[in-house]
Amino acid sequence: MKYLHSRNRAILSEMVRTDFKVRYQNSVLGYMWSLLKPLFLFAILYVVFTYIIPLGKGIDHYPVYLLTGIVLWNFFVESTMIGAGSIVARGDLIRKIRIPRYLVVVSSSLSALINLGLSLIVVFIFALFNGVTPSLSWFLIIPLIIELFVFALGVSFLLATLFVKFRDITYIWEICLQAGFYATPIIYSFKSVPAQYHKWFFMNPMAQIIQDARYVIVTNTATTIWSTIHSFMTIGPFLVIAVIAIVGTLYFKRRSKYFAEDI
Amino acid sequence: MSDKKEVAIAINDIHKEFILPQSKNSTFKQTVVNIVKKNRKVVQKVLDGVSFEIDKGDFFGIVGRNGSGKSTLLKLIAGVYTPTIGSIDVNGNLTPFIELGVGFNPELTGKDNVYLNGALLGFNRRQMDVMYRDIVEFAELQQFMDQKLKNYSSGMQVRLAFSIAIKAKNDILMFDEVLAVGDEAFQRKCTDVFEQYKANGQTVVLVTHAMDTVKKFCNRAVLINDGQIIKIGNPKDVADEYSRLNQVVIDKSNDKKNKGIEKNQDAGQHIEVRMSKSKNEKPSNSFLVNERVRLSLCWIEKMSGEKMILDLYKNNGVHVSSFTCSTFENNKVVRNGNRRKAIMTVNLNISPGGYYFAATLVSRDFTQKLSTLNPTNEFSVLKDWTRAEYVFNGLTGLSHEWIKE
User: Are A173 and A81 contacting, i.e. CB atoms less than 8 angstroms apart?
Assistant: First the structure.
């Protein structure tokens, strides 16, 4: 992507600022909801999965383990769903002014990223309450988030471009996300999956990212791609991300010239 | 004018086509159906080989009828659309105002919206900080800036948007019909700003229908019709050509309408109104302001001593004038069996616009309506560009005379 010219940076920051200001308009607690939402979600999941369906038996700090997965997955859902619709939703701008089209998609992903940051604060607080020992490895979450962001952005570019022409895309993607939720070890752990399938599960970038995040934040007993696969297949999820990001960006770039007339 | 002129915008042989699918492929089902049925796509040529240059310091007008391709051209220059063939070189930073207040968000405060709109126009926060006070002052909205935009009246929103537009200085400014909105005070403000631009040698591109604006400000103009340049150069020539073009279209459409009305009359209408420029000319439906027009009225007699009342209405329903012809007193009424015919001439000292007549035949004492015709075919009164004194505002130009006492 091009070097961010100062005027593009200004557009980006104003768009993200607007997104954020508008999001919690007229709600009493305002920005607090960015923290409260993951908090309550977590409380529900905690009750369900420790008392009703105890899937988390035998996993250290299962509540934090679960929350980490949920928070990262939610970011992926939020940024790709909003990103997919972003070009069409901002049709008024695109038809009337020349701004680099990719800014619209990037700004929606950035808004989701800020939410992820806030949610992660909750995760860390919970980790401390739950008795997880803080360590320097927590910082390794940063490269993982960058990886996740690139993945989500690539998917968003692809979907946003497709959505301009085919409005069915968001419905299809919603179903894919539902399937993806269960195909990714978020609420269950790798221990309930037969070992011979593990490597295939890890071809899903979300599985790799979430397991790595759990490893660096919660417990080093978490199964990761590094402890499972010892061959060239470890590049699998990264290859998936690279292909999607490149295809998505190129396709977006090619079609973006015609967005104004296609919307 | 200096000899060496720098080109601000060069437009090189632009072609623009839009592909219009039979039905838009926005769902997979439709796409599949369209592929299976082999629905042909319709290609609409909007611009067909347009080239011209706009120099630095030009106040350049782009005019054309609706659907002529001028707005497409503007969007191409602004970089919103990409040309099918050809290229556009813009030398300098360009701020397009295809619409005022693009990206305004009703949930944000006036202040936030200024910064947002400014960013979209290419100014960062620091640059906007410098301009902010000026913008607010010009909009006269100091005490409202912390209010949400949704609580602004529409007039206030336009004022704010326009202030940003004119304070956000850039090398080239481009306006699309912005003068069409706003009340008179606002339009006067726009005019002042345009005058300033002209005096400062600011490069401005203006797309408009208002020929007086073109004549007043532009030093060059181009007329586009059906995607091609009809005329380029002197704004007065371009404006005249534009008026002529409109005249042709109005005549055509009025002819069509009249055919319909004549049929109606055959079906039992008893009153007919015809207008022409003189006795020997065929009926027309467009005239110039202050033109003397011959009007002939034909009807079938219902009662002796009847009166014909002819009412002139503006097409918005305003009753402009009324003429009464009493067959009892008026010995100029031509009698032929039970057919009656009256002719009058009338000076159309009324403002440009669409008008129609309604005619009512009443008994001598006005108590009985004998027959009516309403409304007649609409006719148009057009500005007369050759006579400045005939351009007036308001409904009519009252006859007057300046005297010295």
Answer: yes
Say whether A168 and B75 touch across the interface (CB within 8 A).
no
Q: How many CB atoms lie within 10 A of CB B49?
A: 13
A167 touches chain B (CB under 8 A): yes
Token representation of residue A164: 């301009």
Q: What is chain A's mean pLDDT, rounded?
A: 85
Q: Tokens 């038809």 identify what position?
A: A95
Confidence of residue B7 (pLDDT cuts 50, 70, 90): confident
Asked if B248 and B382 touch (Cβ cutoff 8 Å), the reply is no
Tell me the pLDDT tens digit for each residue of A161-198: 999 988 888 999 999 999 999 888 888 878 778 888 88
Domains in chain B, please, with CATH? 7-92+171-244 (3.40.50.300), 269-390 (2.60.40.2550)
Cα gap B174→B152, rounded to integer Å: 26
Cβ neighbours, 10 Å, residue B394: 8
Task: Give me the residue spans of the domains in chain A.
Answer: 23-262
Asked if the Cβ–Cβ distance from A22 to B78 is below 8 Å, we say no
Give this prediction's pTM: 0.71
Give the integer Cα–Cα distance in Å for B120 and A17.
13
- Which residues are bridge partners to B55 per DSSP? B7
CB B340, CB B370: distance < 8 Å? no
CB B261 within 8 A of CB B376: yes
pLDDT in tens, B224-260: 888 888 888 888 888 888 888 877 777 666 666 555 4
Cβ contacts of B175 on chain A, cutoff 8 Å:
none
Q: What is the DSSP letter of B109?
A: B
Query: What pLDDT sits at residue B268?
Result: 44
Contact A61, A219 (CB under 8 A): yes
CB of B18 less than 8 A from some CB of A: yes
Q: What is the DSSP string of A34-66?
A: HHHHHHHHHHHHHHIIIIIS-TTTT-TTHHHHH
How does residue B342 score in pLDDT terms, banded at 50, 70 and 90?
confident
Find the radius of gyration of the CA atoms of chain A. 19
